[in-house]
Sequence to fold (917 residues):
Amino acid sequence: MSVGISIKNAVKKYGENTIIPDLSIEIRDKEFFTLLGPSGCGKTTLLRMIAGFNTIEGGEFRFNEKIINEMEVSKRNIGMVFQNYAIFPHYTVRQNVEFGLKNRKIPKEDIRIATEEFLELMQILEYKDRMPERLSGGQQQRVALARALVIKPDVLLMDEPLSNLDAKLRMEMRQVIRDLQKDVGITTIYVTHDQEEAMAISDRIAVMKDGVIQHVGTPREIYHRPSNIFVATFIGRTNLIEADYSAVDKIINMDGFTFPMERLTVDSDQLVTLSVRPEDFQMTADSPKGKTGGIKCRITDEVFLGLNTHYHVELQSGQDIEIIHESEMNSPFKTGDNVWLTLKNEKINVFTRDGNRNLIHGS
Amino acid sequence: MGRNPMAGKRLDLWGMVTLLVLALYGVFLIYPLFNLLTQAVVDKDTGKFTLVYFIKFFSKPYYFNTLINSFKVTFGVTILTVMLGTPLAYIFTRFEIRGKSLLRILIILSSMSAPFIGAYSWILLLGRSGVITLFFKNVFGIHTPSIYGFAGILVVLTLQLYPLIFLYVSGALKNVDNSLLEASENLGCSGIKRFFIIIVPLIGPTLFAGGLLVFMRSLADFGTPMLIGEGFRTFPVTIFNEFISELGGDDGFAAAISIIAIIITTMIFLVQKYLSNRKTFTMNSMNKIRPVEARGLTRIFIHIYSYALIGLSIMPQVYIIYTAFRKVNGTVFVPGYSFGNFINAFDRVGRSISNTLIIPGISLVFIVFFAALISYITVRRRNIFTGIADTVSMVPYIIPGSVVGITLLIAFNKPPILLSGTMIIMVIGLVLRRLPYTIRSSVAVLQQIPMNVEEAALSLGSSKLNAFYKITMPMMAAGLISGAILSWVTMISELSTAILLYVGRTKTLTVEIYTQIIRGNYGIAAALSTILAVLTVISLLIFNKVSKGDDLSM
Fold:
């Protein structure tokens, strides 16, 4: 039976050192939920608090209604996949998968059936009598998944499970994990520092920094409407441009270039920081005819990457801006050219100058 | 050209080094061993092949039983040390223990003294007129169990040797990934059950290797059964007695017993190797096991266990040092304290102290020199000859110390090479016995140093010798020196080879302590033991400084 997880005012301390000051989060039943953040942000610490490997210094952790703060690790009914898989090297594949069931005093025949079922599901049945050292990284990963799921856990926890695999296998396994999670229908918490992986795999993502959750949302939400500049820069690439907002005209003035911005939640003039993703610029060789004109700048570098070409342009202020443009057979733009930029207005994000708050309405 | 197997090139520097090493081993190890074999199977009078010595050994229970006794002791000690040392290592790795670093030092100290000194101290404590024995008899009227014989040997050697298992297992546990323990707990298996189901199989090969070392040491130990065994005679005691009593006469029987000893240890060694190889797992530990505070009963239990075991094992040393400061009248301790024992010791047997600095000191120079060369040629210049050098250098590892002594004596007590009674023969004995350990640790160090550092030096115009001396040696230095200090500590407390090779002029501290105990000069024996302990402590402190807290490896 899968459960919803509720964490209220969680605190984690190591001695005098506070890792997580005050963290609350609700994870829905059968949701694929990812904790994303740079190393040292507390995401693994939080996962291990849920698993029971770390003590909890404050707050309430609940599976559905049941408080689990003091519950023993083995009683929590959690399936866990470790970063390095933690496959027992002295057991065969089958013995590894059986291990959890054997500790639960389940009849032998049931153990055999359940084990085979999950070996089959993970497509490793043919390796069942192999020792782990004779398996590839991807196969070991499948053993780890089978071992975690065969005990029919309430929750599946995964700590950077793909970080030891090469890029291609990582893509393959993340699809396997995603499909498996939907098939089995189990509440899953996944920890990663790879934002692309998080976006590809998750229903919702919590972006963490310094033990504090910066933003919780679907991949789309956090990409398009990041709650602060940290999230905007951590997820995908973006250009940060300083500007000021005039509340009377609802206009943003960016180094002489002005454009309307009607969706802000503030009604006073103030300094703001714009976040414009590289794909949200339009670049033209000539000055656009429209009344807002365009931003004049000069191309300083171009990098051809096949599907796209990345341009670096220099604003008149001297700031460097990165622009992504779909590659064309005969590119009209070359390094050294003067070009004009316009913005995809609805995709721009406007933050307070300190970067702590997104001013766009509804973000 | 081209037919020369030295990498198809003319004999370069390292080729010559290899040949030199092989020649030296030929003279000082292979020839003596061959000589030993000859002595054992050739009748001295007729010059014909004979198995009479072997038949004598196996047909007379008086001799054969010593072999049975030795097996009782060695298997007993090996099992007990594993049973005591493994949990201690696990507790130290997994939990916080009050005063852990001090305890760790005490464990190492208790293992570094000569076993027979421990045996002697236990006699002082639990012997017929031991302080504990008398205390229980006079105060409670209780008779404490006898420390003499099989049980005593078992107790002394176990307390002496479990630290080896502790150190081996502690090292192995560093390679066990904490996630394995967590995964096991997560899947419903924790505590003691987890220790047996997960930990023990993973460190299995290490237990075999540590067990082998304990086995070899307890099989070869001569001083303990000699002092405390009384009627219970073991193999090395027999070898010693037969050899000493037949010196100048017929060495054949002692040689035959030595051959039997070598065959036994070789078989044990091969079995251990086979078992370890079959059960080895490659583990890479990303998350080491970090000690946590234990709670409740566990916390109480692990503290009692650690303190009781370590307390027991350090007690003999502490008591010896205490008696060193007691007043002595003739051969009995009298009330009061003084430095008299130390003054007497320096007066009468001061030479043994200087010998203990000189003989192991000279040996150490050779050991470091040859360990550096041999490890280098076996790691960096792999070919059939360096392979042979590698194997041959490991042979003394499985030969009991007293057999090394006998082997050298038989070979070098007559021209063309007459060495018996000299310091040289003692140095050779020590060098042969310690080299395998120092070579192993140097090889481990060398394998960490990438080859291309040296290649860079060669490409910049350095000669091979220069590259080794200026580049590789300094990078190996810390590892070499810490290995050397450990060798030094083992050599100054060595008895079983020295007891056969010494003459009056070349008595070492351990030989002198042994002699004084036998003569009943307990005061001087205690004072000398204290000096030995101080030397050991100083050496270990230097080791700690040099190795920057690296682990001890035996």
